[in-house]
Design brief:
The chain is α+β, with helices and mostly antiparallel strands. Among the domains are: 6-197 and 217-251, no CATH class; 616-748, no CATH class; 766-957, no CATH class. It is built from 31 helices and 43 strands. The protein has a seven-stranded mixed β-sheet, sandwiched between helices. Strands 17, 18, 19, 22 and 23 form a five-stranded antiparallel β-sheet that branches. A four-stranded antiparallel β-sheet has the order 14-35-36-37, with helices on one face. The longest helix has 21 residues, at 607-627. 43% of the residues are buried.
Amino acid sequence: MFYSKADTYQYSQPIVSINEALLRTSRIYCPLDIDTEFTHLPYDLNRPKKEVSKTITVQIKNIASSEGKIYTHPDCADIAKHPVASYGFMPIDHLVAAGHRCVLTRVNQPTMLPVIQFDLYGFFLTAELYRIVQGAYRDDIDELVRSKNPKLGQIQMGRRLIASTLFTGNKRESWVYVPWVLKIDGHLLQVALSFYDTCAVHGGVNYATFCANCDVKLKYKDTFTVEEKKQMIKMYLECTKRFVDYAPGDLYNRQALIKNMERFRIIYSSLNIEEYFEAPRLTIGATVARIVRSKLLQFLGLDAKEKNQVIEFCRYGTAKHFKEYKRTTAVYNAKVDGGRCRNNRPNVARTKRLIADADIAGCYGNGLKHQDYPLGRPITLDYPLRSNINDYLTLRQFLKKYRKELVPGLWQARVSTPDDYLLKYSQDFLVSWHPPKNPANIPTDTELENTEWFTEDNIGTTKIYSKQVNLALIQEDFLDWLENTCTARQRKELLDKLHIVTAVFYPRSEQCTTVPQFLEALRKHKGKNITEAKIRRGQSKLIRIEQECHAWISVNIGDLLVNDLLAARSKYSKKIPEQKPLNNLYKLCINTIYGDMVSPFFDIGNVVVGNNITARARAMAWYMEKGLNGFQTITDGCAFEVNRVISAKQNRELRSEVLYEMYTKENKGAFNIKPLGSELEISDYLYKENECEQVGLIINDEKLDNQKSLNWLGEQITVQLQEQFPNIPVIDKFKFEIKDIYTSASFHGTANYKFWIGERGIKGKMRSYKKLGYDAYNLPGDDLQLLTSNYTPSEEFLTDLRNRPEMVSRCKTYLFSKILKPGEYKKNYETSWKNSEAFPGCTVESARLLRECSLTQFTFQSKKQFDSWEREQKRLRDKTGQSYESWFIDDEGYLNFQEMIETLDEMIRRGEMKFSSSREASKHWHLAREYSEHPEYKCLLKAKHQLDIRYGRVLIEDDNDTSTNL
């Protein structure tokens, strides 16, 4: 049960005697698998209870044991069928059950005693954290979760739950001290906690899949149905035998970690890097980053002990390195831009024509094969960050000076138009970025990866503006677009009006072709950095000359690693149960390499590599969007009408000016609209396959089944784009695949959609909406009335858009549920959770209305215009529960969504700064007379108030007329 040495989740032999162990070490380890069973309590929203959940049992297992033990939680002491846990920290009950004499006490200040570190293993440990402690001990955990001082210890949830303490010298340890002293068998020990949360070891898979991938068999995982799991107290009381079989099933996380390590030994061996083996980390990103680093060591001919040398070669391309430029524009290089996301036809809400949903095949995986990875120090061009006198190079000047040094795939720049300038010729290729006030705040700490870090506060906002560019990322694919797709006048404007704010490139003249040549160049370099001040009244200047070594070498990522992983994966069939886990793991490794390259969290990440991979994908998506006349572009694909793709007029080529807002030019003869890959309109037919309707195409009177139709369309996309956009290299680097063919669809915002095959609806995609239904309410009187527990607002809304976009039913108030994470709990503790019985790991609810009007649907001319509309929309929503919908409601209360988006799109394209400027009443200060509340707004406010009572955010009067602060 106890160990004297630990290397992450690997331990020495168990110690026989605590007394003997303490003679040799000041810290002993007690690793335990833990899990809990709990239920969230039903309640009446009109008379909400403060109690949110009840824990039923706590399960604990020594890592060396084959089976765990069940303890009834004090919450359910009145129905206990197992020993009731009595200690403030419930793992102590397990030590007592094993025969140890234990006394646990709290102390006011840290002790100098020897340490017992409890290493707690679990899957999504946030759910268990507050349930294995009680009383003042839970308050101690709560303080660590809310702590803002890393030197006193913190418990945080990013990809996984972690404990961390920062010591002198910025050394971070993965444990925290708690103010507890354990007297065990006569020995006084200071308690420390460490967490081994396995929920991110294989990415976003669930516990069952994680164990299956690691070859850990779970006998009783499916003992209870989903409905039975909602009634776990009843299961505990009435189906005790099944409960006892089921409950310990989640206590195999440490065993899965060891089996996972064996799997990765196989992977290392298949890559011929056994001598570089490192135990897998607790996130797949960190694990794969170490594989990449091992392959780089092998490439350079270095051994495992020389990993710091590789880290040094890599670090000049990392986000962390560029973050250190806190006073120059070089800091803007720390960000890797994401995928393209844009509504290309914002005035279209639905189509009932034949549709194909196309993707770039293996978008980022194939992107890696076309990408070199550089080792060495790049050239960085930058300027003072807060200066008004920076004399930026124009794009034309930059290319004239450095074009011959730019290696495709290994350079990037961030460009902006002058502050007071709007482009004459609109564009939608470049994506602007408005960074946070302090760009150096973008987090890069490896151990504190956080899924919630993508916020305006720390990375700013990204958006496409038609007449303004701000810190947009450019690289080789932009130059291909500029030179081959732009008109002469637009090319001239961009060359002269785009300013290079910062640039990074690996200079062609410094490239080494062999490893010995590279290492020799580093060894022989004798440059010096010089700073000189020249003082002259009114003309003083500071001259800095840097002569660091800029020799570099590169290796193709496909040759380095991806091709070997693909070859190894092909040896394991996903159809053979015994081989499927390794097939899955190899696929996971391949998919994770891209994430590591663009991540700010790893020492092998490279912003130039990452930005070139994503920019290549964005460029390809632009050509798809335009050449296929697509609806919404979402990262690596778009849906389009098979019979309505774009082609150039005879003897002409498609140009970006024509393709901008092409949905407004369909009847103006600027281009042709034709079927894909055919002179005649493509027909379709429906047929049954495995009891499901499928769509097949009829091409030149030949019937193709669904799969042949998908293959044909994928091939024709390549032909179409190559014909319409000749001389564009990126099109030759990708292939295309079709997810499926549909007969109708509806669209909303930038990335919300739903497809149909005949009358069979395919599950829609709408961000922030779950697949399961919600509780929906109305307010017929003073009390809320439950309408349904299976309300799906996104499905109903998208279905209405498809059936009748001129008469859309208004949405209902519904309760959105989510798991309360430590980050949100800490951030909003004072305003939302201080007086609540909810804690991290609980399911909490908020009242919502679906917002029909989304400004993301439209492309604005500038940030100033967008900000103006956004402010106006927020003001309207705060006042009435809706925004521009007010002006498009018919006499029966239906929303004319189609008229709304057409009106707003036309105004935004005209350059209007806000909607109210179009209203005559606004000129006379009478606009408020035209406002109308959302029909469910009062219901929403009532539901929010009732939830505020439930979570202790408001004062209420109890039955005895006494005011209670909940």
